[in-house]
Amino acid sequence: MSLGRVLVIDDEAEIRLAVKAVLKKEGYDVIEAEDGEKGVAKAKAGDNPLMLNAIICDLQMPKMGGMDAIPSLRKQFPSCPVIVLSGTATVDKANILFKQGVIEVLTKPIDNKALIAAVKKAVGQSGHKDQFST
To answer: 61, 80, 88, 129: which has the fewest Cβ within 10 Å?
Structure first.
C-alpha cells in the first residue's frame, strides 16, 4: 500500500532521484517529469488523469517553468496541494505562489526532514485521502 502519489517536476535528474528515493523510502509512489510541460502532460494522461496527492515543482526549467506549470496543474487538480522546491524562490515569488495555492516553498539543497513534513502535510490536505495499492 502506498501513502499517496506524488508528481515530482524538476529539470535536474539528481534532484528528482533524491526526492524519489526519500519519498519511496517513506512509502509514497513517485512519478517524475523533467520540465513543466512534461509534468502537465503526464498529469493529464489522456482520458485517464493520474490520481495525485501532491505535486512538487521546481521554478526554473526549460520549456515550461514552474510559474507557468503550477497554474495549469492547479486548474486540472484544484484539490491537489503543490509544493515548490527551488533554488531561486524569492519572497515576491513565494507570495505569488501562495496565492496560487502552493502550500510550501522549500529551497535547494533538499532538507529531507522538511521535504517529508511538507509531503505529509500536502497528502493530509489532498482531496484523495484514500490509500491505494501500487
So the answer is: 129
| CATH assignment at residue 89 | 3.40.50.2300
**Res 94 pLDDT > 90:** no
- Hey, what amino acid is at 38? K
Q: Cell for 112?
A: 529531507
At 20 the three-state DSSP class reads helix
Residue 38 lies in a domain: yes
Q: Considering only the C-alpha atoms of the chain, give the largest distance between any 2 of them, rounded to a whole number of Å.
A: 39
Is 0.70 topped by the overall pTM?
A: yes
Rounded CA gap, 45 and 23, in Å? 22
Position 49 scores a pLDDT of 57
Q: What is the number of structural domains in the chain?
A: 1
